[in-house]
Design a protein that fits this description.
This protein has 5 helices and 3 strands, in the order H-E-H-E-H-E-H-H. By secondary structure, it is an alpha/beta fold.
Length: 99
């Protein structure tokens, strides 16, 4: 698993296993769409933009809390069926945002 800052989207996004989006002020969630379109699992703070983009099935929504983020990451690591289901849903949900 790779952890760190993204330097270039094309190579680093392809190598990512999970995208944890902790912003509570992002209004549109474009980075969520980019991650979902790249078939990257998403954990995001429960904000209006994240709720809209993820639609409850494209990733895990959590309260903006360190423990909640950690638990969501563990959930993705431990529940194999959840990862596969969300991978498929994330790609499907990202399609309407394509330009």
């Amino acid at each position: 698993m790779k952890v760190g800052f993204l330097l270039t989207r094309s190579t680093d996004c392809a190598a990512a296993d999970l995208f944890v989006f902790i912003s509570v002020k992002e209004t549109r969630g474009l980075v969520l769409v980019e991650a979902m379109a790249a078939n990257i699992r998403v954990v995001a703070a429960e904000t209006p933009g994240s709720i809209y983009v993820l639609a409850g099935v494209g990733g895990l929504l959590v309260l903006a809390d360190d423990d909640a983020y950690g638990q969501a990451v563990l959930t993705f690591l431990e529940v194999e069926g959840l990862r596969k289901k969300m991978d498929m849903e994330a790609c499907r949900l990202a399609q309407p945002f394509a330009i």
